[in-house]
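debug: dumping io for the single-chain case to check the tokenizer round-trip. Nothing else runs in this session.
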Amino acid sequence: MKLKQTLLFAALAVFLFSCVPQKKYKAALSKIDSLNAANAKLAGDLKNCNDLTAQDANQRTALQNQIDALNKQIDFLKQNHDATLKQLQDLSVISGSQAESIKKSLDNIGAKDTYIQNLQAELAHKDSLNMALVMNLKGAIGNMDDKDINIKVDKGVVYIDISDKMLFKSGSFDVTEQAKVVLGKVATVLKAQPDIEFMVEGHTDNKNYVRKPYMVDNWDLSVKRATSIVRILQKQYGLDPAHMTAAGRGEYVPLTPNDTEEGRAANRRTRIVILPQLDQFFKLLEKK
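debug: decoded output
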């Protein structure tokens, strides 16, 4: 009897499974694939965020160490002046003009302390703006291969490196259609902050350029590639040409040695450098 019941249940399970529509089964598999792809993208975004957070922490630590050193110097000067002033007053050998001079020195030290605090606040504000800009750029460009495009902050400056494999054909300065899509996404972010100024740098490897009548060497090629990019950003995406600079660096600022094909490929790149607003920083330095 038990054997008959077991066989009956098994037959029923096979029957029910065979009744599941093939269409629903394929839809479930498709949904699983979509969820896996979404999970992979979220994992990549999390890694980018963690990398930026670690980089920002290192820069903040270096700045804080400099500020701590300056604060120690201020504390030492304050203690030294206070002790000297007290000794002179106790000995009754200090004149009114000397006392006033020492008082002004102490006031200057207090002003320098305030000045350092203002600098610290401005640097923190600048760092937060740069981090927001990097996150906006990465969000706009999406999950692209890091070998083709890399966005980073180094010493307070934002860099966007795009490989020439994506931008140009070998030995050419004509921008590919794929590159124009990427440049459009970058332009959208930059256009949202009209005060930003940036420089487009062309870089080559150390292979001799095949000469053409209108170009002599890698200097010319790197400059022509930079001007091709700024021209697209200006004419197709409406960026203000007064805020752009085109520059050619030739083969003379390599990222890696040029003794392998991989190294040369890494060195052939176009870099967009978000220029720091030095005029605002100098105005801060001029404040009393």
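debug: round-trip ok. Residues 22-91 form the longest helix (70 residues).
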